[in-house]
């Protein structure tokens, strides 16, 4: 099975690039499922129903989020109606929406996608490890599901790595988001789980984490806001990770980064055009 | 001019790998200067005189550090005597050691190396932007120096990116450290400064930021220490960034990541074996 | 019913003062229950079985703790055996010890004491509001218990005040700890719950939060540790809060601070020697 | 000399109470100088020229601030024109306004008032200890000035206590602000400096740090904003500290808290109506 995850979409530049590239990415990889993190899609802050619909229309299967999930207040009314849009699982009981979703791929495989938020240097939430554990205990690879993907939205690289090892052998793929910078540490962990610390953003990399750089620079140096943060509007780089799983185990056999367009060095899995490693 | 920076050396695995690979890296790139971040070289916590000497003997020219700089208390007595070992410039006035150093390359070029520490999610220090500004104001590319390298040791990707843009056009190369994960965003910023958000660690990537993973996992999930943190001892990946500057401007013409050994996908600048982009 | 709570005991100075004064405080107030926070009793860091026994012998009924609870590792083996020693309730499931305890006063009243830890500017734990809610839902004033006391061990005054209002009308008394400074805001909240943002420490106030002041001052100004933190050894001020409840409701009718000895202005409830406000 | 400091004014309730009580406080104490912290005076967020003028008209001599100083953007244009309005001294060089001011009392004494901001759990700024040191080095008690007051606006009680000891013997009075809760630790430090960790707010104490409690409680428990923060409008308690200095030394001979009105137990210096301890 081939799973693709694209990191935090930042603003219009990021949205346009993902909408434009989603079909191509699916086709080149013969991908079974496309997940994107959409927490910054609406002008850098949150996401709307309209944007979700545009992303689904472009070929996205699941949208995960993070600390910016509620920035657009309309989402509170919408999120319960959309089974493919998830928010971090470790919000308090009673929070609108869901923290995990089971989706069926075009070929009929069941995939569980979990979204969790780290707590180091972030707003206090419930324990992300306990939240993920509960899902993994309910839902075992090969038994009740064909693949499991965990989006760990976190600041500290230590917490993301710890989540990778925590899920190792029990999830197909653990990927980080939130730093808005792709990491170059894609690997298959010893237990068979594909891992990358951060997928990076889909946004303009001539910026400060996707935002037009003047105001962030002003705030770092002068400590007084001059204006609002606005997404940078240069050409976005679409950043993500592709994973191929072994249908016999649900674990990963291949993992590779994706970077298309914009300022960063392009890369695409060199196995994209090859046949699958194991017959399905 | 060709400059190489290798990120945080973690423990013996990281030290051994750097000592073993330093000569090869210099030779393959025909490098003029090799800088390493050594803040975690001594068992994960700090660095000692002996380790500095071993690194210099292996071909390292400059050692930068970060928040762990004082973990080995002997360094307080040693640091003033070593002009090639630097600590973040934004410690209070009167702090032992220096925050920047001017070194001469084998070919006689002058290079200013500055070490600064971010403040977001980190211990309070003086303003890193003001500290770097003071150096850049004193020391201009092409006027008093052939190249300027800034190691911004910081947690938040936003602060590192902001430092990149802050120095853009005034430094040859701004590189982040501290996250212990290499980022895949090497680029030359619009003003000509080479930039990568984090060089990554030189350490074992089957770990939590270079430390044996059991105890970090225990602390994340149980919130009670069971033991001490110890560096992971598997084969290290040497992670860093190579930059080539234009001698006419001191700005960057090429930038590419380095990853050698261990668990991560290897990469080396494809221009390493080529002649320099501009005659020196 | 009369309940007394004394804040964080810091080191030997604090222990000696509490042991010496506990009987006097009980007697002057004709107190039914004496609770102390002991998280810094052992040299500033944690507490031991021996110290617990000394405190019980001096007249203490319940010992609560906070973020320093595990600093003395022997406590992990001891805590399960001591029903009067509590640790914050919002540690992960499976943590040794208990986060709440039901104790019987000398006169046969049942008192529930809950310990919770804040999360703002502190280590991530489970939700303290949810943890307290669970206890309050199980155990209602006048129905199953005569009084309920909540020790909210937290850094941010906002989180402590919020806990006060959260419990208002459902607990007899909510008191903060951890800042090591007594606040002067004792009041009965609109719903009948006695509240004080912080009880203050039992320790030497010629110090930095109870620790000998030289090393803290050194670290604030030089940012390099010179030595270890050690408790200040001058005469301690015993700091706490006394509450009288109405037996008919379990809610508070009187609240007043206690400060005895050392450098702070002394105070003791002016109603201590009076009869109780309502017959029991 | 008699100096009065009133803590953070929160919203209209706090403003009205200070305007109403300022004259009475001055008269009862025969005060020479009245300082207030105004950082939350404008609806909880910042302060305006109009509010400054109202406070001066009511008898206030100096207004200090804190992290909310720039919440009302008009202040950026106004602050340079008002020598009696100060902002934290450890903002970057070039920041509008001043961090310290020399004022003359009605009786012709010179008083230096310094405002500094802590960094623990707060936004990164320059070193508050170095900023205060620079002022104290320039301006010595009895030599160039009759009294020195330091407002240390900080979250951590440790940082405030450390500032007290740092200034001990060199300033007349160090007082904390920002926690919005008065502390009960007024004392004269060993070197002669009056100290209280926090003056408390001038605001409604049936609230969460002065704000109407519903929304803060909602955010603590549900982690999703429902509305905006608005100041609580119940009767405010005016909270502050009074200090009497020895004219021969500029150091403190008396210190006592002030709490008037609202929900907290009232207190006023019992020496207010007495003659001064030492002839001026
Ligand atoms: Fe994001
Ligand atoms: Fe995020
Ligand atoms: Fe490091
Ligand atoms: Fe570091
Ligand atoms: Fe404590
Ligand atoms: Fe504590
Ligand atoms: Fe305030
Ligand atoms: Fe404040």
TrEMBL record, chains A, B, C, D:
Any Pfam family the entry gives: YmdB
Residues holding Fe cation 1: 8, 39-40, 180
Signal sequence bounds: none
UniProt KW keywords: Metal-binding
Name the UniProt record assigns to this protein: YmdB family metallophosphoesterase
SUPFAM superfamilies: Metallo-dependent phosphatases
InterPro entries: Metallo-depent_PP-like, YmdB-like
Residues annotated to bind Fe cation 2: 39, 67, 153, 178
Keyword Metal-binding among UniProt keywords: yes
GO molecular function: 2',3'-cyclic-nucleotide 3'-phosphodiesterase activity; metal ion binding
CDD domains (UniProt xref): MPP_DR1281
Record-annotated active site: 68
């Amino acid at each position: 099975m081939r799973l693709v995850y694209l990191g935090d979409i930042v603003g219009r530049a990021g949205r346009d690039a993902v909408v434009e590239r989603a079909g191509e990415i699916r086709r080149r990889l013969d991908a079974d499922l496309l997940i994107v993190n959409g927490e910054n899609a609406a002008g850098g802050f949150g996401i709307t129903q309209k944007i979700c619909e545009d992303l689904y229309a472009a070929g996205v299967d699941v949208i995960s989020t993070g600390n910016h999930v509620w920035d657009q207040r309309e989402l509170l009314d919408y999120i319960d109606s959309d089974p493919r849009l998830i928010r971090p699982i470790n919000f308090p009981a009673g929070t609108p929406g869901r923290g995990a979703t089971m989706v069926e791929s075009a070929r009929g495989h069941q995939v569980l996608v979990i979204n969790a938020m780290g707590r180091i240097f972030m707003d206090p939430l419930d324990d992300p490890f306990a939240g993920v554990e509960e899902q993994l205990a309910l839902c075992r690879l090969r038994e009740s599901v064909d693949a499991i993907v965990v989006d760990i939205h976190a600041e500290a690289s230590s917490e993301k790595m710890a989540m990778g090892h925590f899920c190792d052998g029990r999830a197909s793929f653990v990927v980080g988001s939130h730093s808005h910078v792709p990491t170059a540490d894609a690997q298959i962990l010893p237990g068979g789980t594909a891992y990358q610390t951060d997928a990076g953003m889909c946004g303009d990399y001539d910026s400060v984490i996707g935002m037009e750089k003047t105001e962030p620079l002003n705030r770092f140096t002068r400590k007084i806001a001059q204006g609002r943060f606005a997404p940078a509007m240069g050409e976005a780089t679409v950043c993500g990770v592709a994973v191929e799983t072994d249908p016999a185990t649900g674990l990963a056999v291949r993992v590779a980064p994706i970077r298309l367009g914009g300022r960063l060095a392009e890369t695409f899995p060199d196995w994209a055009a090859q046949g699958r490693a194991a017959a399905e």
